[in-house]
UniProtKB/TrEMBL annotation:
The gene is yccX. NCBIfam families: PRK14424.1. Belongs to the acylphosphatase family. The keyword Hydrolase applies. It is an enzyme of class 3 (hydrolase). This is Acylphosphatase. Residues 12-98 form the Acylphosphatase-like domain. Residues 77-98 are annotated as: Disordered. It comes from Paraburkholderia hiiakae. PROSITE patterns: ACYLPHOSPHATASE_1, ACYLPHOSPHATASE_2, ACYLPHOSPHATASE_3. The active site is at 27, 45. Its EC number is 3.6.1.7. One of its GO terms (molecular function) is acylphosphatase activity. Gene3D superfamilies: 3.30.70.100. Transmembrane segments: none annotated.
């Protein structure tokens, strides 16, 4: 029995980033990083001061994006990241800022 290829099977993760992540260019930097990694989905500010993201890509791409989100851009101060895989049939075409 073969394992799914970590470079082909799409994964979708819902992510919530807490800390000083609004007003510091977090969303803009996230879009740049997602484009560099060829991740699809979106990033948005939430009313509670956190940032929400949906990231979709291969396991290797998602792992690299999650690792980046744990730190964010230089001005951000990430205090916590929650992430969970979500099963969905939706396929995002690009990564965008909401």
């Amino acid at each position: 029995m073969s394992e799914p290829d970590l470079d082909t099977r799409l994964e979708t993760y819902y992510v919530r980033v807490h800390g000083i992540v609004q007003g510091v260019g977090f969303r803009h930097a996230t879009v740049r990083q997602a484009h560099a990694l060829r991740i699809r989905g979106y990033v948005a500010n939430m009313e509670d001061g956190s940032v929400e993201a949906v990231i979709q890509g291969t396991a290797n791409q998602v792992d690299r994006m999650l690792s980046w989100l744990r730190h964010g851009p230089p001005a951000a101060r990430v205090s916590g990241v929650e992430s969970e895989e979500r099963v969905t049939e939706r396929r995002y075409e690009r990564f965008e800022q909401h």
